[in-house]
């Protein structure tokens, strides 16, 4: 596995490494591989891609680092047979303020996803009957109020171009 230092990851993304270290120390960005304090952290391409999405959400979209960290904590991947977008979207919650969620969407499916495929929270019905369990397990899908679409292929290309060696 190709790994690089935090210095190299920061250079690829045009950041100062102390900014990345601050996000990590504040638990806003949580590397998938956690090490003890003071230990050198290795960065593979998938971790740098995830960090690039985090930085995009913070610097270009204006999300808080805590929210960006929550959205990028899991599920960042691409597809071998199609391009991919990282889509974070805001939907109305049944109770309370609108919520941000995210998904990885094939480029060929992006139109369908943002118009009627976003996961919308729902209030579950009480009870254990077969019909109630069926209704509670159905996905509640619909359009997003707001969607941010990040081209994962473009980010991967940028990282590959800056990758040492």
Q: Can you describe what's shown?
A:
This protein is an alpha+beta fold. The chain is built from 7 helices and 5 strands. The protein has helices at 6-13, 17-25, 45-61, 65-72, 110-116, 130-137, 152-162, and strands at 84-91, 99-106, 118-119, 141-142, 146-151. The strands form 2 sheets. It has a 3-stranded antiparallel sheet with strand order 2-1-5, with helices on both faces. A two-stranded antiparallel ribbon has the order 3-4. Helix 3 runs antiparallel to helix 4 (65-72) and helix 3 (45-61) packs across helix 7. The longest helix has 17 residues, at 45-61. The chain is globular and about 55 Å long. The mean pLDDT is 89.
Query: Into which percent range does the helicity of residues fall?
Result: 40-55%
Name the overall outline.
Answer: globular
Query: Order of strands in the sheet with the most strands?
Result: 2-1-5
Low-confidence stretches: none
Proportion in β-strands: 15-25%
Calculate the terminal CA-CA distance, rounded to whole Å. Answer: 13 Å
- Sketch the major β-sheet: 3 strands, antiparallel
Mean pLDDT: 89
How many strand elements?
5
């Amino acid at each position: 596995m190709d790994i690089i230092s935090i210095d190299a990851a920061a250079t690829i993304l045009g950041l100062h490494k102390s900014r990345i270290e601050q996000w990590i120390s504040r638990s806003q960005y949580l590397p998938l591989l956690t090490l003890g304090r003071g230990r050198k952290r290795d960065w593979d391409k998938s971790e740098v891609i995830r960090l690039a999405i985090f930085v995009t959400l913070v610097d270009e979209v204006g999300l808080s680092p805590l929210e960006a960290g929550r959205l990028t904590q899991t599920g960042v991947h691409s597809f071998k047979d199609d391009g991919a977008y990282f889509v974070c979207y805001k939907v109305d919650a049944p109770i309370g303020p609108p919520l941000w969620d995210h998904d990885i969407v094939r480029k060929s499916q992006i139109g369908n996803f943002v118009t009627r495929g976003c996961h919308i929270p729902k209030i579950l019905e009480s009870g254990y009957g077969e019909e109630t369990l069926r209704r509670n397990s159905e996905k509640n899908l619909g359009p997003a109020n707001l969607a941010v679409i990040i081209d994962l292929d473009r980010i991967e290309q940028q990282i590959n171009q800056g990758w040492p060696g």
